[in-house]
Design goal:
With 85 residues, the protein is an all-alpha fold. It has a domain of 56 residues. The chain starts with a helix and ends with a helix. The protein has 4 helices and no strands.
């Protein structure tokens, strides 16, 4: 047998199999009612002339149970960008 053949047999038997890649967590689905509630919340902050960050807005929306606890800041940022803020 050739060295390459022996190497491939040994390598194949000792190499662990790859596990299936982990699936990313599901992003929460935000319906039109939730989007409207987020819009009203942001407009209320603007009307009260309150300064807010993305982190504080995410915390406030989670605290008010408008968005699920598993929502990431990047999802809210993308949604606000689509909404025109």
């Amino acid at each position: 047998m050739k060295v390459g053949t022996v190497h491939s047999i040994v390598f194949r038997k000792t190499r662990p199999r790859r596990a299936t890649p982990p699936t990313p967590p599901e992003q929460p689905v935000l319906d039109s009612f939730t989007v409207g509630a987020i819009r009203r919340h942001v407009h209320t902050k603007f009307a009260a002339k309150q300064a807010f960050t993305l982190a504080s807005l995410t915390g406030n929306l989670k605290e008010a149970s408008i968005i699920p606890e598993s929502t990431y800041k990047i999802l809210l940022w993308r949604l606000l960008h689509k909404m025109g803020f």
